[in-house]
Amino acid sequence: SSGINAEWSLRPGSRMTLVGVGVDHEALVRSAQKHFPTVLNEDTSEENVAEYSGGYCYKHDDQPPPSIGPQELPTLTHVAIGFKSSAHQHEDYVKYCVLNTLMGGGGSFSAGGPGKGMYTRLYLQVLNRYHWIYSALALNHPYQDCGIFTINGSCHPNHGWDLTQVIIKQFKEMENGKINHSELERAKTQLKSTLLMNLEYRTIELEDIGRQVLASGERKTPAELCAMIEAVTPHQLQALAKQMLASKPAVGAFGDLKNVPSYEEIEAAFKRDNGELTNRISHFLLKGMRSKATGLIKS
């Protein structure tokens, strides 16, 4: 009983949406009034606001991951760098979606075929150039109050420094480089295609209605969303990147971190015009140096 009450405490009326597709609206309302009478009368106002702060989280683990087969899986270095993006109801949200699709990415192996994003920037400029990178992927995470746009990568531990440099260069290229017409049109077409193909399924359409109503109180039609995607320009994306990189970076790293730069060095690199990492001291080594220094002070 206590577990059920705790579960329901996380689901107030402001976090719930009842959606029906192919049902009578009045019947759905009567059913909601019957089964959720207390939820409908709740105060749905929420005052908590999340704020982006940047920062870092490093977790060193040089042990190979568990394997169910006879051969051990390789120990890798995983690095993610992100910056503040927009909330899902902000006017820039669709622009971030286009930028996310333009950057794309994935694993070092793909079966190919249409719509797999093999012509996105992270495939053409990263995965096709650096054989030691296992994966590189751009992700935008929008929330109610703000969002975070990240590029994640994984590689052999010997290349942790190089992987971090590649990710930084990709962000700087967004800010300083040019977005040509063909890659932008390809990204917009791919995003519209993904949107429309997903909505061919009734279950996904049901979820889409629920998510949009829960987030904004209304639902935008596919035609409206496609028009918003089509209206995005190269100048808007470059301005978006400049705005994004003006925030403090957020860095996450996991795995063998012996060759991953410190957060201070990554932050300093973003402040340089060329984005170069200069002080080749890893987070792992810097942490050891600080521990020794602290020990000397205490003694």
What does this structure look like?
The protein has helices at 2-9, 25-35, 37-40, 93-103, 121-127, 160-176, 181-198, 202-216, 222-230, 234-245, 263-271, 283-298, and strands at 55-60, 77-85, 105-107, 133-142, 147-155, 250-255. With 299 residues, the protein is α+β, with helices and mostly antiparallel strands. Strands 1-6-2-5-4-3 form a six-stranded mixed β-sheet, covered by helices on one side.
Throw out a few tags for this protein:
single chain, disordered C terminus, 6-stranded mixed β-sheet, alpha+beta
* Gyration radius over CA: 23 Å
Low-confidence sequence ranges = 292-299
How much strand? 5-15%
- The level of helicity is 40-55%
Give me the secondary-structure topology.
Layout lengths: L1 H8 L15 H11 L1 H4 L14 E6 L16 E9 L7 H11 L1 E3 L13 H7 L5 E10 L4 E9 L4 H17 L4 H18 L3 H15 L5 H9 L3 H12 L4 E6 L7 H9 L11 H16 L1
Parallel strand pairs: 1-6
Antiparallel strand pairs: 2-5, 2-6, 3-4, 4-5
Helix pairs in contact: 4-7, 6-10, 7-9
Short description:
The chain has helices spanning 2-9, 25-35, 37-40, 93-103, 121-127, 160-176, 181-198, 202-216, 222-230, 234-245, 263-271, 283-298; strands spanning 55-60, 77-85, 105-107, 133-142, 147-155, 250-255. The chain is an alpha+beta fold.
